[in-house]
Records
---
Amino acid sequence: SGNQTTTATVGIDLKPNNNGVRLNLVLDGVARSNTVGVTNEASVYTSGNHVFKASKPVTFDGNTFVTGPAEVSVWPSNTTTGVSTKYDNVFLFGGIANSIARDEVAKRRGQSEAIAAERVRSKVLPEFNQEVDSKIGDLNKDLEAKVNSKLREKDLMPSATNYRTTEDDLRANLRLMGDGELAGGDGPFVTVPPTGFVVALHESLLNNSMDRLKFAGRTMSDKELASEIEKSFSDLLGRQFNATQKIDAAGEGSKEPATFIFPDKDPIRIRLNN
């Protein structure tokens, strides 16, 4: 009998792969215990410090996350902190009995640590497997329902994708280009900071996205234009997008109503400099 406290942290270990994302979810933990084992002959007090590492592979092909079976390694360590026998208060025999009990404990340390390791393994492995599989299942559902389906609905689904990982970083290349549209090629190699990320954005992504708003050839009031932009972004993001309120709050602008007359081709064009 006794008590045990387990603490753990989860991290990601990227693995090289040129045809998708490959990584291991890594669980590093330690189980600390204080127990007493009781027999008719003696009571043994033990402090346990069992280190473990569990790893579960995850891959992503651009559409679906897939998991593999987890593995766990345990490094058990038991330390005897005390021994008592029914002869503790008997002169001479108490010390002898205590010494014999300690010798028996020492002989069985390997067995006790093997049992401790198996108990940690049997607790960690199934729960880690089940928890990650459940979370990845939810992630796949959210990816389809909250991202991909909305991109398809707005005709913003990337026309080409490429994902790859190295030991140090994850790279995703996405292109949005329909018939008759232009798009940029691979940009220059950009070093990724150790604790951050980099977004390299080509202006063709912005322009091709703007074309999906279907403003070509239309005449719209400023309120109609703002309303359509807000609705489109709200539908895409799954939350309310209030651009006009932020623009009005940013500074003094003309309060006179405006009319926008868009040409049949290239109704809105964005150009990035430097």
---
Amino acid sequence: QSPKMAEATPPTGSDADADAASASPTDPGEDAYSQGFHQWEAGQYDDAISTLKSFVATYPKHRRVSYANNLIGRAQLDKGDARAAATTLLSNYRTDPGGERAPDSLYYLGQALMKLGQPAQACKAFGELDAVYGAKIRPDLKKLESDAKAQANCA
């Protein structure tokens, strides 16, 4: 596993996603999301983006839509398209701030902004994450955010 993948793949979050993605094999929407997740996990970013966009279009009310949109942004970030990732992640957060992966989208938005050389904007994303989700942030995401805030020199 490359350092970049390790950094982009928090073990607890990804394992939880993988377990959840395989939990309901009789749901075709779950299967479609799971396929995209596994493509992303295998580093097949373009395929994952395509599969996940198709999933969102086909199942717009599915409980995994927040996950899928977040993962589309992460795949864009992983393949080096930080600008597209920032747009996707901000949209996922704004469209569904109550979505299960909206906090993750703010965190990865901060990561995309760092890649774009905008640490002050990244700090704003991390600040929004804290202001909106506070104590409800998962511990694994909170740890990642803490490290990212230090890297961005957030006040």
---
Amino acid sequence: VSRSREEDIAPVRSPGRLVALVAIGAVLVLVVAAVVGVVAARKLAEHQAVNDAANTADLLAEAVVQPVISDSLPSGDPAALQTLDAALEDYLAHSSLVRVKVWTQDGLIVYSDESRLVGRQYQLSADAQEVFAHPATRAEVSDLDKPENQYERGQGRLLEAYRPIWTPAGTPLLFETYSPYTEVDARAGQLWRGFAGVTISSLLLFAALLLPLLWQLLTRLRASQRQRERLL
């Protein structure tokens, strides 16, 4: 009988277990929210950075490159290269862009701020070829394993943006820019800090609302325990 009474009393003599379970649950919720927040912030930051890279390439093409290119640029005319070089020099010196390239439709690089690339020919990707048929500005994370990106390696991950431009005679060319992926990291950090602030504040508010209920429950458990002990 004594053992039976101890077994009846034991489960209610540890209300601290309830507090521990609630604390563990709160920690698990915080960890899950943190992981989800990091992933969501990274994806959103990359999406925004890709859009920014596309907008930068679009503005640079319209305001700087398109007005100065000549019909002799595709043929490698030194004067045409110097004119484009002069137009881009000041901008490239004060911007975060890593590389600029101008391609022909058959994959020939007719201009780049990296002179070793000029005159080389590579296979354009399907997406790059698509912008000739359907003019648009596109951006994506660069594949630095491609042979045409050999001089961009060693600078971390990059974002590339490209769009068509035209010579005065209407010959289509592909204008391409490369920008650092570090902008994604910086923006992801900003988004995560905002997300973390909202999440932690919400959890603290939830805990503040939950504590009175938990305290009331523990008080009732203790009262019930004392009553059972007296009855036993």
---
Amino acid sequence: MKQKCYRWLFYLLGLLLLATGLTLNTKTDLGTSAIISVPFSISQIWDLNFGNTTYAAYIVFVIIQVIICCITAKKYDKAQNRVRLLQAVLQLPFSLLFTRVMNLISATVPVLREGFPDSFLGSFPGRVTVLLIAVTLAGTGTAMSLNMRLVPNPGDGIVRALAEVSGKTVGFTKNCFDFFCVCISLTLGFTLAGKIVGVGLGTVVAVLGTGRVVALFNKLFSDKICALAGLERDVTAKK
């Protein structure tokens, strides 16, 4: 029971850190992470709620995962397919909670340049500092939640599903999916707003930095938190 409590504690804490990091990234006004750039661009162009547009994007991701599960069903037995479908469907309620946390943080923290115009936080060096903190939080949250091997974040879930159906590695598929999302965001911005929306320095830092934070966290802490959660060491965690 104690190990199960640790497992859920680390999982939920990971999701909280991830939601905080992703939302803080948007407050720097330097560009968001690649996957989040699409719902963020939509929310900015049409003046919609950021958390709600993110949840709508996650619903699309889950639908795609379910379709892929059906396409690749012959590779697995019935029990495995039920688990795969359940993991995909369970992303919906967890994502709803995840995006509510994003809304809460978004409503609490102002855009730094507007909320702190005459202070360090509102300056370019200050916003870059917050950006680095945000990427660190997002990477740490990603590592913690994935290490617990429960319900993946839809952004991670769709990448794994696409990697499975394409036969490519998860890393390569992640890079391709990030590039695809950035292209969509740029297209939306230029065609509907006449400018770049949601893509910038923060996007580049998030793409390059999040994976490094995940790798560093796994190298330093994955064995310890997995042991507390009663999980066997993931031999791929430090790669």
